Amino acid sequence: ESSPLKGGRGSASLVAKCKMCSRENSIDIIQDSIAVYGTSESFQTIVAFDCRGLEPVDFSPRACGKSTFEDVSLTDLEWTDYDEKANVPVSILEIEHRFIKL
């Protein structure tokens, strides 16, 4: 989704007006940066943002994009299921995130 910026300067994923100075700030998802998380144990970049006047401080994982499993919900910050094709349990637990300025 996208919201228009004031003055017809384009659009952004999130547009917020500062209550103190009335400045319009925005965060936009850089579309070519969206990636699928792999199986590596190390941190991986899954999305990049263009931040103007705002700085993300928290991340709330949600099921989106292409997935092998249906109805994956990370609202409780964990998910478990059983892979019947591989005959193994699968899970997403102890989600950690960090923001890195580029």
Counting DSSP E segments of at least 2 residues, the number of strands comes to: 7
* Main pleated-sheet profile: 3 strands, antiparallel
Strand fraction:
25-35%
Radius of gyration over alpha carbons?
A: 17 Å
Separation of the first and last Cα atoms: 23 Å
Based on CA inertia axes, which overall geometry fits?
Answer: elongated
Structural class: mainly beta
The topology string of helices and strands comes to EEEEEEE
Helix percentage range: under 10%
pLDDT < 50 runs, ≥5 residues: 63-67
Provide the spatial order of strands within the biggest beta sheet.
3-4-5
Provide structural commentary.
The protein is mainly β and 102 residues long. Helix content is 0%, strand content 27%. It contains no helices and seven strands. Strand 3 (14-17) and strand 4 form a beta hairpin. The two termini are 23 Å apart. Residues 63-67 have low confidence and may be disordered.
Give a quick precis of the structure.
With 102 residues, this protein is an all-beta fold. Helix content is 0%, strand content 27%. It has strands at residues 3-4, 11-12, 14-17, 24-29, 49-52, 79-83, 88-92.
SSE topology:
Layout: E1 3-4, E2 11-12, E3 14-17, E4 24-29, E5 49-52, E6 79-83, E7 88-92
